[in-house]
Design brief:
The protein is about 30% helix and about 25% strand. The protein is an alpha+beta fold. It folds into 2 domains: about 150 residues, 3-Layer(aba) Sandwich (Aminopeptidase); about 80 residues, Glutaredoxin. The model has no long low-confidence stretch (mean pLDDT about 95).
C-alpha cells in the first residue's frame, strides 16, 4: 500500500481541516470552522502551517505546526516549533499518514530555522495524540504531568527544552453577580464551540451574570494566566472532557445564583 500523499493545505482542504474532519455534521461545527479558518489565515504570517494527507483523492488527515512563541495552547519555550494536533481519520490509520504528516511538520520547522519540535502527548489509553506514536518516530519525553507529557525532537545540541504551562488563575468576585471566567482558544474546535455556548448561556441570564473572556490568542493573557482552556463559575471550574453542553453550563450558573 502506497504511503498517503502530503501537501500544504489548499482551498480544497479548508473545510475538512477547519471542521476537524467533521464535514456536514452540524451548523454549529460549520460556524466554528469558519472562525477557525479565519484564525488560521491570520496566523500564516506568524508561521502557522497546516499540511493535509490524501489517499484516493480524499483528505484523510492533517497536522498543524507553528512557532512555540505564538502557540495558543502552549507549551512555553524558545526557538522551537509546536505540533498541537495531528489527526488521521480512523479508517485510514495504520497506512503511514501520521508519520508522513509529522515528517512534513519537521521539514517545515527546520525550514523556519527552529531548533527542535515539540508536542503534548498522552500516555493513557486515549485516541488523541498517543505518546507511543511519537516515541516510535523518534520523539523523547521532556517532562510529564500525570498522563500527559511533552515529547520533543531536538535538531541542535543547544536547543532548550520546553516547559508545561503553569496555570495562575485566581477568582475575583463581583458583588451580587455570578461571574463566569471563560478561557478559550479558537485553534481548538471543542474549546471554540463551548466558548460560543458559554456566551449564549450568559446572555440568557442577562444582568445576573458577568462574563469575562480570556482568549489564548492574546499572548499577554496566555502568559499571564497560562490557561488556554477552562470555564469557571464563581471560581469553580466546570468541564465534561468534551464540548461543555449548554444545559450543564446553565445548571452551574443556576446553582451559583441560588448561593448568591
Amino acid at each position: 500500500m502506497a504511503t498517503p500523499a502530503v501537501r500544504e493545505m489548499s482551498p480544497e482542504d479548508e473545510y475538512f481541516v477547519s471542521t476537524c474532519s467533521h464535514v456536514n455534521e452540524s451548523e454549529e461545527i460549520d460556524q466554528c470552522g469558519q472562525r477557525r479558518l479565519e484564525w488560521m489565515r491570520s496566523m500564516r504570517g506568524q508561521g502557522l502551517r497546516v499540511f493535509t494527507a490524501h489517499s484516493d483523492r480524499k483528505q484523510i488527515g492533517f497536522v498543524y505546526v507553528m512557532p512555540i512563541e505564538v502557540s495558543p495552547c502552549g507549551p512555553v519555550g524558545h526557538d522551537l516549533a509546536v505540533v498541537p494536533c495531528v489527526w488521521v481519520v480512523r479508517d485510514a490509520q495504520g497506512q503511514g499518514a501520521g508519520r508522513a504528516l509529522m515528517e512534513a511538520a519537521e521539514e517545515e520547522a527546520r525550514r523556519q530555522g527552529r531548533k527542535g519540535i515539540v508536542t503534548t502527548a498522552c500516555y493513557h489509553d486515549f485516541w488523541f495524540m498517543p505518546a507511543a506514536f511519537f516515541e516510535r518516530i523518534g520523539y523523547s519525553p521532556v517532562c510529564r504531568r500525570d498522563n500527559d507529557a511533552l515529547l520533543w525532537k531536538s535538531f541542535e545540541p543547544l536547543a532548550q527544552p520546553p516547559q508545561f504551562l503553569e496555570r495562575s488563575y485566581r477568582f475575583v468576585p463581583v458583588p451580587g453577580k455570578v461571574v463566569i471566567d471563560l478561557f478559550y482558544n479558537t485553534f481548538c474546535e471543542t474549546s471554540d464551540i463551548e466558548a460560543q455556548r458559554v456566551r449564549e448561556v450568559a446572555a440568557d441570564f442577562g444582568d445576573a451574570v458577568v462574563l469575562h473572556e480570556f482568549p489564548a490568542e492574546d499572548r499577554e493573557l496566555l502568559l499571564r494566566y497560562q490557561l488556554p482552556r477552562g470555564i469557571f463559575v464563581n471560581g469553580k471550574e466546570i468541564g465534561w472532557g468534551y464540548e461543555a453542553p449548554k444545559e450543564g453550563i446553565a445548571e452551574a450558573v443556576s446553582a451559583a445564583l441560588k448561593l448568591a
